[in-house]
Design brief:
370 residues, alpha+beta, four-stranded antiparallel sheet
Length: 370
């Protein structure tokens, strides 16, 4: 009888221990349970963003993309993570995340917001890069941001971010004009007055509505007075520019205003504007410009520029190719290759035209002299 009780008691404790073990496993399993549907995974990622755990949220997004690639919550977490990166100051990551969204969901209803995030990511870096106390200012981010905002403005007119994009663009124009003015002051300090005057004239044309343009006009008037000449008024802007205007505007000419050159008016046949040729030949040979297109017929080339919406923002020049006239359209004047490349990328985004290339004025001048 005693032995039976002992066996019963042993079996009872063993059974109780087994029940407790199962209970503990069930509890642990419930705590570490993997979310089973898109909503649960999204809520997990959203909570991680709320807690500032951006790396964990990125991992959760990868899981959502693997398990629920077409689910609306996956798309939502994409944009929330891009926005969180920007708010955290990680603009490079914000830009990459937004670009990733655009590549994978180009027709998504919220793709305009992705473009906006791309713009503000570059905008934040542009403000730092063009700060007055920056010893190595770089306008590249400003040109990139400008191109992204202009793309949003032109291609998504009903977007909720139109006003914000225009405001950012207007501010970027002010920053770029101030940058140009500081470069002009540096040139004057280095006794490079001729180049400074040329750059001041370009500033007035590119950014006529900015405070820096007023300073540039005053500088031009002062230089004229120093030569004891009657002050020559600065060049007038080709177009009254608004926040959504071109990134860079070349000086206007009679040909651009009328659509045909003086030679065309007299002869009735296409000819390169002598003013355009003169402008090209007057540029610093080490500076850069963006070549947009070329054609053996000037009128055809002008029509192409009109279709792109930049007829008043280009300069035409003429050279000889295989013994016959060849006309080319160029855009802008950039002191450095890096500045020119940034502007080229911005112009490609704005026009949706990939076959643009950067050229030195020196090479163009040599081709015109042949």
């Amino acid at each position: 009888m005693g032995m039976a009780r002992l066996l019963f008691r042993g079996n009872f404790f063993l059974f109780a221990f087994f029940i407790l073990l199962l209970s503990g496993c069930a509890s642990t399993s419930s705590q570490n349970r993997v979310p089973q549907n898109a909503e649960q995974v999204y809520q997990q990622g959203h909570q991680q963003l709320e807690n500032g755990a951006l790396s964990a949220a990125a991992t959760t997004l990868n899981e959502m993309e693997r398990r629920f690639p077409l689910h609306v919550r996956t798309h939502q977490l994409y944009l929330e993570l891009a926005d969180a990166y920007h708010a955290d100051g990680a603009d490079e990551k914000a830009l990459k995340m937004a670009m990733r969204f655009v590549r994978r969901f180009p027709n998504h209803r919220d793709v305009d917001y992705a473009y906006y995030i791309m713009g503000v990511a570059d905008f934040s870096r542009a403000v730092v890069a063009l700060a007055p106390n920056n010893p190595n200012p770089d306008p590249g981010f400003a040109y990139e941001a400008m191109g992204r905002f202009l793309y949003l403005i032109r291609n998504y007119p009903q977007s909720l971010y139109q006003v914000h994009a225009r405001d950012h663009t207007a501010y970027l124009r002010v920053l770029l004009a101030q940058y140009e003015l500081r470069q002009i002051e540096r040139l004057l300090a280095d006794n490079q007055a001729t180049e400074a005057v040329e750059r001041a004239s370009d500033l007035v044309v590119r950014y006529p509505e900015t405070p820096a343009a007023k300073a540039a006009k005053a500088l031009l008037a002062e230089r004229a007075e120093r030569k004891e000449e009657k002050p020559v008024p600065p060049p007038e802007p080709a177009v009254a520019l608004d926040a959504a205007s071109a990134v860079v505007v070349a000086p206007s000419s009679k040909k651009e205003e009328t659509g045909v050159s003086v030679a065309e008016e007299k002869k009735g046949t296409p000819a390169a504007s002598s003013e355009g040729d003169a402008w090209v030949m007057s540029r610093n040979a080490r500076s850069y410009t963006i070549q947009i297109a070329g054609n053996s017929k000037l009128k055809t080339l002008q029509a192409e520029m009109a279709e792109l919406g930049i007829a008043d923002q280009v300069i035409y020049f003429k050279r000889t190719l295989n013994g016959k006239p060849w006309y080319s359209a160029i855009h802008g004047d950039y002191a450095s290759r890096r500045e020119g490349l940034a502007a080229t990328q911005a112009l490609k985004s704005r026009l949706g035209k990939k076959d643009l290339w950067l050229r030195r004025f020196g090479k163009i001048q040599q081709s015109m002299a042949k």
